[in-house]
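Reviewers of the previous submission asked for a worked example of the structure-prediction workflow described in the proposal, so we include one complete record here. The input consisted solely of the amino acid sequence. No template or homolog information was supplied to the procedure at any stage.
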Amino acid sequence: MKITLTGSLGHIGKPLTQKLTQKGHDVTVISSNPERQKAIEALGAEAAIGSVEDVEFLTKAFTGADAVYCMVPPNYLDEPDIPAYFERIGRNYAKGIDQSSVTRVVHLSSFGAHFVEGTGPITGAHLVEKILNELPNIALTHVRPAYFYYNLFNFIGIIKEQDVILANYGADEFPLVAPKDIAVAVAEELQKTVNVQPIRYVASDECTGSEIASVLGEAIGKPDLQWKIIPDEEVQKGLELSGMPNQIAGSLVDMYASIRSGKLAEKYYTNRSEELGGIKLEDFARDFTKRFNQQ
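From that input alone, the workflow returned the following structure tokens.
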């Protein structure tokens, strides 16, 4: 198959490219960074250097592909209007897909993307799903991953300062996922020509905040590490003190609060796969320890 991937060689893009080229597929990887070309080619793929803001470029990169993987670059924290950013990129993808006559599309979305509002930045994923759903004559799958393990890196600072994890969610279990497990799922979907499903949820493990603190604490030599639930207002204040704009901080707090309420994961739990991904929290703890010691 000829497959075009967006996402360059990021957390998902690199293992995804490796899996597909190893299977013998003709893979093109879109990247906005010319310095990534050699690394892309070293994996046995072709580099298409350009911007997802450029519809003409996307159309050319998609033309002739049997399948396309679309993900919105995670640059939204630099955007004044997060939903508008997602909508803009989503419409660019839709135009490129329509004009190139691609028939198989896999879109990286998020758990909770079925909600129109109340989930912070994830409302952007909802908008992209809606835009792509309007395209005719394509087999479309929205891959909805859970909470990325690497978001836990954001707690390293507070652990070092106060020996505690502070969050406005985590009292109840929620699903987490490793990018490599997402890559496995996306690769499987891109190669499907029959029995295509519109939505696929992906998770690697399911844990409470206390369980996360226990595993990470043991790994970094802090066996008494606790996960403490604090009010939304305190999280908002902490994000703003770190230099984050008020609107962006508020959006993230809304997303975290939707984890706390169970809203974000409700569809995940009613549509979960029979098998979770292979990378468990204990496996991620090794990466966490390495980053903790470096930071």
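The first helix runs from residue 13 to 22. We consider this example representative of the routine output the project will generate in years two and three.
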